[in-house]
Design the sequence.
């Protein structure tokens, strides 16, 4: 590649970076207006807030996943008890 080709590629790359920066800035501005990003404990500067937010998400996910298994076990126990 010649110097002019490299310069053109660099200019194209810089143009793409500027485009992405402006798009991200616009998304952050829109999200800040409706409070999506700023109101989450996952992005807090406090370690404890972040830790409890992660723990809470984990707890709720585990609860949602385990409920069908507990329900199935309860049905099996009820059916097994009525067969005796």
Sequence:
């Amino acid at each position: 590649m010649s110097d002019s080709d490299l310069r053109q590629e660099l200019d194209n790359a810089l143009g793409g970076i500027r485009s992405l920066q402006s798009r991200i800035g616009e998304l952050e501005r829109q999200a800040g207006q409706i409070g999506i990003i700023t109101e989450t404990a996952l992005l807090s500067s406090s370690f404890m807030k972040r830790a409890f937010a992660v723990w809470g998400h984990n707890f709720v996910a585990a609860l949602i996943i385990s409920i069908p298994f507990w329900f199935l076990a309860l049905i099996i126990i009820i059916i097994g008890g009525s067969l005796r």
